[in-house]
Specification:
By secondary structure, this protein is mainly α. It is 71% helix and 3% strand. Helix 3 (66-86) crosses helix 4. The two termini are 32 Å apart.
Amino acid sequence: MNRTVFHRIDRRLTHWLAEHGLTMLRISIGVIFVWFGVLKFWPGLSPADQLATETIDKLSFGLISQDVARILLAILETAIGIGLLTGKFMRLTLLMLVFQMIGAATPLFLFQELTWARPFVPTLEGQYILKNLVVVSAALTIGATVRGGKLIDDPENIRSMTPDQKAHTA
């Protein structure tokens, strides 16, 4: 394949990714939140059910029962997912996501015997929690575009932009 054809394919692919990547990221995380959230409406369906309810129990000093905690978490996660899927109320959705992610990370500190086999060696539960770093990074990326920011597919385009247009790029 000659260089011109490769360059043309690369530009088209990069343009498509810049145009659709954030939407796909938002929707994929939304699907995960709806899926995991809906599972929590039924006791025992979610593999994270027990650890999540025990965490909420400990954080609420026992004031929230495990059944209520599970339902509240199911509602929160499902609402986050719906917000991400629809793209509506994104600031509120991302705020709820950050709140949920902070809560999801607390077992790493509260239940170290369940989340760490030894220092720097997470258990399966610990790995499940640590993968949320990717979700947080994705939320930060989505949050950077809430005010209409866009990804730029070609650095050459930046030179021709007005200062106002540059302010809306991610």
